[in-house]
UniProtKB/TrEMBL annotation, chain A:
Its cofactor is [2Fe-2S] cluster. This is 2Fe-2S iron-sulfur cluster-binding protein. Keywords: 2Fe-2S, Iron, Iron-sulfur, Metal-binding. Belongs to the adrenodoxin/putidaredoxin family. It comes from Banduia mediterranea. The keyword Iron-sulfur applies. The lineage of its organism: Bacteria, Pseudomonadati, Pseudomonadota, Gammaproteobacteria, Nevskiales. Residues 2-105 form the 2Fe-2S ferredoxin-type domain. It holds the Pfam family Fer2. InterPro entries: 2Fe-2S_ferredoxin-like_sf, 2Fe-2S_ferredoxin-type, Adrenodoxin-like, Adrenodoxin_Fe-S_BS, Beta-grasp_dom_sf.
Length: 106, 413
């Protein structure tokens, strides 16, 4: 099991343990983390799984592919830490990762 | 008339207003999804040849490849340049211009702004519901659906509420297609004349906002944003964007406000469920949107030769993504032909499209519908209390919008 710390918009932290291999979006929606929706089910087509990765963990993530980049271009408040959660699979390497979630998606 | 299964495959032409009016189109979509999910039709006289993309997954594929499947080349509906303006609005642009303009208006419908808007939406919804007659037949479309969506639109634009029915009219005129026999306007010229009045009104509003401090309404946002501040100097582009926001913010949610009543009435078991557990409103709303799918399709144009689902697509081909079909695709949605208000993933549906053009106002639409039903159920909490008492009249404008012009309803109290 991999541990993930989600910090919501108001600063509340929720730590969850999830199976190796699922995505950060699934980790969030399975655990009812507020602010993450995942409408397209992980096809990188809705951007309702936008989240901010703690900078310390950023370089351990796979690079942003074209389609993810294109979708990130239409989210509000994109910054250097932005990722689409469905495009990041959790692995033992990411055990303990810290993720900030926005107030909501649209 | 032949049944959908008897028509030879190569003669199927779903782009026929008659099929949409009667809902017969569903039978054709079922067949296409099963037998020829990417289907070529060469016999349509009104629009010309087109491909139908009917499966959920294939639609997502087209939506996520804007560099191949363009919105800008020939417009976004099966008809070339629907509005007859000859100019793109941002929904009909490709990157990077699309992104810049989209982001100028996006804050208006951000989660933060929606929270601020909710109080006002609830108050207006309450006023509208309080004013409804009971034990008496009335038109739900006019009294509820149009009234609420138009008030909302006026708030979003910072448009004078007392003139709000002008927005309703411009929406109807904008989406009317006199060429294919709409009764809304007499001629293409009459239509353009009315649209120019709309443009004039909004240009005045724009100058007013541009001269004032920024406010959280759409016109002010456009007037102050870097990417859009000079838009009125390109009047047709300005008009195109206005039409997008007026029609996109009006016809669609309006249709689902009506469709949701109808869906509950036709599925009394679900109506009972909702009355017993009003908190289901949050999943009922996206399910009602899926059920209605007020925008039947969007169109793309292939910018190069490409393969799609095993079919050879040629540069310049017209690709029609039928959302209405994708939302009934059993490969992506469980028991898609049933209206189920407590589905597990109700937002996994394609009524808002996907990819970079995905509907900007999707959460606003959900918010308006949720508030409507929360407040309605507080007043009338018995199954079938809001009763459809006659046949709904579908809109006659086009095969793009799926909605109603009249829906006779009686509130039994
Ligand atoms: S779930 Fe849709 S983009 Fe990630």
């Amino acid at each position: 099991m991999i541990k993930i710390h989600f910090v919501d918009h108001g600063g509340t932290e929720r730590s969850v343990e999830v199976e190796d291999g699922i995505s950060l979006m699934e980790a969030a929606t399975q655990n009812l983390i507020p602010g993450i929706d995942g409408d397209c089910g992980g096809s990188c087509a809705c951007a309702t799984c936008h989240m901010h990765i703690d900078p310390e963990w950023l370089d351990r993530l796979p690079p942003i592919e074209d389609q993810e980049n294109q979708m990130l271009d239409i989210v509000d408040l994109r910054d250097a830490d932005s990722r689409l959660g469905c495009q990041v699979k959790v692995s033992p390497e990411l055990d303990g990762i810290v993720v900030r979630t926005p107030i909501g998606q649209h | 008339m032949l049944s959908p299964n008897e028509v030879p495959l190569d003669q199927i032409d779903v782009a026929d207003a008659e099929l949409f009016r009667s809902d017969a189109v569903f039978g054709y979509f079922d067949r296409l999804r099963r037998e020829d999910p990417i289907h070529y039709c060469s016999t349509n006289k009104l629009y010309g040849p087109y491909w139908s993309v009917t499966r959920f997954k294939d639609i997502v594929e087209v939506e996520t490849k804007p560099q191949i499947f363009s919105s800008e080349a020939r417009g976004i509906t099966i008809e070339d340049d629907t509005l007859g303006l000859g100019t793109p609005m941002f929904i009909a642009m490709d990157p990077p211009k699309h992104g810049e303009q989209r982001m100028s208006v996006s804050p208006a419908v951000s989660p933060e702004n929606l929270m601020n808007l909710e109080v006002g939406i609830r108050q207006r919804t309450n006023e509208v519901l309080d004013g409804l007659p009971v034990n008496q037949t009335f038109d739900w479309v006019d009294r509820v659906s149009i009234e609420l969506t138009t008030q909302m639109l006026a708030i979003l634009f910072g448009f004078p509420q007392e003139h709000r029915r002008m927005l309703t009219r411009w929406s109807e005129v904008g989406s009317a297609s006199p060429e294919s026999g709409s009764s809304v306007v007499e001629s293409p010229e009459a239509r353009m004349q009315e649209l120019h009045m709309c443009l004039g009104y909004f240009t005045a509003l724009w100058h007013q906002r541009a001269a004032a401090e920024p406010q959280p309404d759409l016109i002010s946002m456009l007037a102050h944003a870097e990417a859009t501040r000079d838009m009125p100097s390109r009047p047709l582009e300005f008009l195109g964007n206005l039409m997008l926001l007026i029609i996109g913010g009006n016809d669609t949610t309006r249709s689902t406000m009506s469709g949701s009543v109808l869906a509950l009435n036709r599925n009394p078991e679900e109506y009972r469920k909702l009355c017993a557990r009003p908190e289901l409103v949050t999943s009922f709303v996206p399910e009602a949107i899926r059920w209605q799918t007020p925008l039947t399709h969007m169109r793309r144009t292939a910018l190069c030769d490409t393969m799609l689902g095993g079919k050879q697509i040629r540069k310049g081909d017209r690709i029609v993504m039928w959302y209405l079909s994708g939302n009934r695709d059993p490969q992506s949605i469980e028991r898609p032909d049933e209206f189920i208000i407590d589905r597990k993933n109700p937002r996994h549906q394609i009524a808002f499209g996907f990819g970079i053009h995905r509907c900007l106002g999707n959460r606003l639409a959900e918010l308006q519908l949720r508030v409507l039903w929360e407040e309605a159920l507080k007043r009338w909490n018995k199954p079938m209390q809001i009763e459809v008492v006659g046949d709904p009249v579908p809109v006659d404008t086009s095969i793009i919008f799926r909605g109603f012009s009249h829906l006779p309803v009686r509130i039994n109290a």
